[in-house]
Amino acid sequence: MLPFFHLLLRQSNDYNMEIVRSLLLFVAAGICEIGGGYLVWLWIKESKPIYYGLVGLAILGLYGVVATLQPSNFGRVYATYGGIFIVMALLWAWRVDGFKPDRYDIIGAVVALAGVMIIMYAPRN
Questions:
Q1: How many CB atoms lie under 10 A from the CB of residue 2?
Q2: Chain-wide mean pLDDT for the chain?
Q3: What is the pTM of this model?
C-alpha cells in the first residue's frame, strides 16, 4: 500500500468527502468529454445526422464547466484528469464500442491512475 493512502484514512470525514466529491466530478467530466466526443465521432466518421454532432458539442462544452468545479488548481486538475481519462476511455471503448483491452492496456491504465491519485490527493503541507 502506498504510504499516503494510510494518511488519507486518518484524515477527517470532511476531507474524505471532498475526495469522493472530486472523484465523482472527474467521472462526470469524463462522461461528458468521452460521450460528447463519441457523438461528434459518430456524426463525422459514421455519417450520423448533424444533431449527433450538435449534441456532442454541447456535451463537450458541459465538460469544460464540470472541470471548473474541482477544488484544486488548473494544472493539477487537468493532469489528474488525463489519467482518469485513460481509464474511462478504455472502459467506454470496451462497453460501448466492443474493444477488448489487453493486459498492457490494463497495466498502463493502473499505472496512470496510481500516478494521478498521488498528484491530486497526496497530503500536502
A1: 11
A2: 88
A3: 0.79
